[in-house]
Design brief:
The structure is a homodimer of 342-residue chains.
Chain A (H helix, E strand, L loop, with lengths): L12 H21 L10 H13 L14 E4 L13 H13 L12 H5 L3 H6 L1 H13 L4 H14 L15 H12 L3 E9 H4 L3 H5 L6 E13 L2 E12 L5 H9 L6 E4 L5 H8 L6 E6 L20 H9 L2 E4 H4 L12
Parallel strand pairs in A: 1-2, 1-5, 2-3, 5-6, 6-7
Antiparallel strand pairs in A: 3-4
Chain lengths: 342, 342
């Protein structure tokens, strides 16, 4: 899944020119054949997206957006991949507690570790934010950034979704993969803006979504630069640095990107301020919300869900001009062809 | 100063192909004519840079670096523009105190404002970090991000450097402008990593350096998302969020970019850890330090300077394989042709 444009090179000379012509011709051929949003059903939602993107890239259009300002932001959990029966990073956390448990016999009788070991989500939820924070610190900190990345990579390779039996990285939405790529081909810079951990996401964002590591905005813990035996490392400390959720999302966007996006895609009330900030700017804007109304192919939930609750957004979408994307009616398929059958 | 590659477009069809061919031919013609680093004198330093960049982009070379990893980081003060007789952002701060003084009659008799109003740098320095922080909060916070940007833009248009009488944005180093562009043309992603304020830098980074806003890493104050009369804003709060200096630079790089750079260019001990972190990675690496040894065309200072002191870096550069770039001997010109004579 490549997301890079073609570059001329000062050193390229004639072979470079030929390669560019060949690639350009391939691109033309591709355009004639394929619908870039093949997994989006024809209808009002698809038309709205297609028109916005087409006009944004067309200097003759009233909806034109200069290339530098073509910034699109996507939430991750529930927007790019599933978030049921629990956030996948929470599943990672629980698996990690189990893996570390043999060195912590006291966890068998101490909350919130006991609940995590027993997979007791209700007891975990009863512990509130404090319980989650304690699990987070025990599983996500106390190692270098490089060690953490290796741990996440290893988990992603082995872990399987409890309902589908697929790797978590296969639980991504095919229509969204197509949209990310379509936006990039139309000159948009595409970012992920997630309440999840920035260094968790970066392990797979490039391979799975074509979103490079530097285009990921997320929650983070503090890190400290240390030279250990002559080798510099960044140690992950048991202290929250930033929560990239709700009113934190515009803050994180401003800090990382320094521009107000023109397109925002979310699915829960955690994305409300990101949508509000994006669509309050002048000029063409598009706000989109995935509505999880497909209990057959994925999950059906909104106002009352413990993960990814959508309540205020559901009430206000219409009045604010945000598009509610029905998973059931607007997507012809949800997940990509499973890896085994590709 | 464009830094963008050429992109094929699904919608481009034949005109797109012709445009690409024309641009490719122009690029070839350009390569034959011009030395991209014309303001760098021939010699060991220039050869080291030219070879590193050429090999990084050449898949057949031992020094090849995959495109995604071609990340170059530049300090700003003293590396891309001058930092004498004081950091330009400090000059902004002092000018701002003077502008706000009529509404604060008590500043005439209260430090550190009195020192700022009198331009008494010695008294300011005597107040230490606390004094600077107090000035910073009074001049850089309490407004929205958009209001702050307008204030900085206005100042940059009017303010003049005390020695040269030029706008501060003309006090940039011509050889570095050439290097930034040469790196981008060779497929490098170029970032500024500065101890200065991220939102101060973003006002001019794109126009002056060709570095887009999202590629700026810097120090920051906290911001808060607020909806004021139905209009969302990000308010700048009187609280430091992050200091992007010394051991903070690798932390900022990791947070924003999520990759270890392969090239780092600094000028003071504030860049030491950034150079260390960059050059400790595996594969081809290049660390560079501007040595301010040109009292005729710019300023001559290193170990004892109040701004941009270079002491440890001077001692350790050789042993660590970092290149000391002599402003006097390696640069054929320092500043660009003044705007008035272009």
């Amino acid at each position: 899944m490549s997301h890079r444009g073609i570059r001329t090179s000062r050193r390229g000379a004639r072979p470079g020119v030929l390669a560019i012509v060949a690639l350009a011709l391939l691109a033309v051929a591709g355009a004639v054949q394929a619908d870039p949003l093949a997994s989006w059903k024809a209808g009002a939602t698809k038309s709205r997206i297609v028109n916005f993107v087409e006009q944004a890239a067309d200097p003759a259009s009233k909806g034109y957006i200069p290339a530098a300002d073509r910034v699109a932001v996507f939430d991750n959990d529930g927007t790019l991949w599933s978030e049921q029966p629990m956030y996948f990073q929470l599943a990672f956390m629980i698996d990690r507690v189990r893996e570390l448990a043999p060195s912590h016999p006291e966890w068998k009788t101490t909350q919130p570790f006991k609940a995590a070991l027993e997979g007791d989500l209700k007891a975990l939820a009863a512990g509130g934010e404090h319980a989650l924070l304690e699990l987070l610190m025990a599983t996500h900190t106390g190692m270098s950034t490089e060690e953490f990345e290796a741990i996440v990579r290893d988990w992603l390779a082995k872990a399987r979704h409890p309902k589908t039996g697929q790797p978590y990285t296969e639980m991504v939405y095919q229509p969204q993969l197509e949209l990310l790529e379509h936006l990039r081909r139309s000159g948009f810079k595409v970012y992920i803006v997630s309440g999840g951990g920035i260094e968790f996401l970066r392990v797979f964002s490039e391979e799975v979504y074509g979103v490079p590591r530097e285009n990921v905005v997320g929650s983070s813990v503090e890190t400290r630069y240390e030279v250990v035996n002559g080798k510099p490392v960044l140690m992950r400390l048991p202290k929250i640095a930033f929560i990239d959720d709700k009113a934190g999302k515009p803050v994180g966007i401003n800090q990382h990107i320094g521009r107000r996006p023109v397109l925002a895609f979310g699915n829960s009330d955690g994305d409300f301020e990101m949508l509000e900030w994006t669509t309050a700017g002048s000029g063409p804007r598009l706000g989109l919300i995935v509505h999880h109304d497909d209990g057959v192919r994925e999950y059906a939930y909104d106002r009352k869900s413990a993960m990814g609750s959508l309540d205020k957004g559901l009430d206000e979408a219409e009045k604010r001009g945000w598009v509610l994307v029905s998973m059931k009616d607007d997507w012809s398929r949800v997940y990509p062809e499973p890896e085994s059958r590709r």
